[in-house]
Input
Amino acid sequence: MSELSLDVTASRDKFSLELALDVRPGEVLAVLGGNGAGKSTLLSVLAGLLRPDRGRIELSGRVLNDTAKRVHLAPHRRGVGLLAQDPLLFPHMTVLANVAFGPTSRGTARRAALDAARHWLSEVDAAEFADRRPGQLSGGQAQRVAVARALAAEPELLLLDEPFAALDVDAAPALRAMLRRVLRGSRRTTLLVTHDPLDALVLADRVIVLAEGRLVEQGATRQVLGTPRTRFTARIAGLDLVAGTADPAGLRAPDGTLVTGLSQDPIPAGEPAVAVFAPASVAVHATRPHGSPRNVWPAVVAGLEPHGDVIRLRAVAAPGGPPWVDGLAADLTPASVADLALEPGGSVWLAVKATEVALHPVAGGS
Amino acid sequence: MSRGFPKLLWIPALIALGLVVLPVIGLLTRSDLGQLPALVTSPAALDALWLSVRTAAMSTVLCLLLGGPLAVVLARGRLPGLRLLRAIVLLPLVLPPVVGGLALLYLLGRNGFGGQLLEATLGVRLTFTTAAVVVAQTFVAMPFLVIGLEGALRTAGERYEAVAATLGAAPLTVFRRVTVPLLLPSLGSGLVLAFARALGEFGATITFAGSLQGTTQTLPLLVYQLSQSDVDGAVAVSLLLVVLAVVVIAVARPRAVEGRL
Output
């Protein structure tokens, strides 16, 4: 069980990363962020494939990097395993030899290495593939083997780089469940990089959110994803979010619009707060609706895209309407898209029931 | 695999094929088949055949031992100026072999500083020896291996090597167990190309090593010499070279020549 502490600045191409981070022994930390957030830069730095410009990385008492002392441990000496979205099994070896590669490379006797390989293959339910070549495996099977190979090397820190991103939708849930079981069972310190909040919910104890190479949010997984404090986190968590200040009647957006909703605990008036709601709870109308919903805002349709079984509408602000409507999402059935004759550029009204809107206090400034 | 190409391409393709095949047929029709066995087994021809095979094989080994590591350095190195180096490696490919031979002569010949250095330190004189043939052939053949290997290394990328390193494998282990095995197909095609180029080498050899029977007179040099006086002999020895080329292709099989495919 290994503790990781990191405080680095690193840059690659046009991305830069500036991050301080501690991961407790045995903890699974999810790193969420969009493209260009600095996630893969972080992984490269940890794996030793990229030298940080400045900073220090320590793993269970060993210094992996210390720019002040010009320390940079080579990748093979770091005890940091990497599982990428592409399994990258060595095509010229059998599955068993692939999994035994880590142990034999580090001097384990051949017989013991093969035993370890068989053990890990059965851990990931892939024992029957031992004698196959990687080319004979499906994507999901290959990724299972890659998990076994990474774990067989007994890394002190395991890096998972979007491990399900390249799998088809049928294979991902099974692999996610398997990984959860294996990670929990081995209590291995793990850093999981993903853009899918579901990966984080299933696998991670704690979440950090990166945007443009900086940490924008962190906390326990359910808390961060259930109550996102930034628009960015809300978007990757698939939720709509409006920032403003608390008001006795709800949330006062910067333009003065009142968003009514419910909060777990009362928020003192004037405190920074956010209103969060699911795109599925947003109703779309062609004309201004009358009746119960108090949250009704004009918007313009920016785009319509399939999102699972529903169509997700992305809104932009209507002329003269609240500007924060930009980027809000609403989920509709294909039938209602047809009924409303929705098209990009068309004017609509978005309505949300107050009971569907959750209000959260946020730390100042975000 | 794709069948959807413009039918018009058949015309230039057939002309190209003809350009490759018809000269060999021309050679066959010109040859006197009755005399062929005697001409091909003449002492000069047998000497040249043996010398050609020997020197080409030695050059190929040299290409592998020196050019292989060079390809790795070019593909994986991070030195500034590597781009320039990469261009320089192509030089023997672009240079007329005769010019290459001259350059070798003025470096390693009796009056070249390299030649004087060799003679002073090791007491070795290179010019007009079999070793000179090997040097000349290696000079012209090496780029074929280096370019092929370097391209393959770049296409394979460093991803497998990076994964191997994160599994705890030291650089030498990665090279031995991952880099080299992944390169084997293109290594095969590179070696075949280098061997074939060494076998056909003429210009650099005749300039740098001369044309002495049994020592430096390889098959192409013998063909050239015979063509001045004994055309039947030249054609016969040429056919010998054609047979040798066919054997190389057969041994290498198209798969190795196509490399990664």
Observations:
- The domain at 48-258 of chain B is CATH 1.10.3720.10 (MetI-like fold).
- Residues 256-261 of chain B have pLDDT under 50 and may be disordered.
- Chain B has 13 helices and no strands.
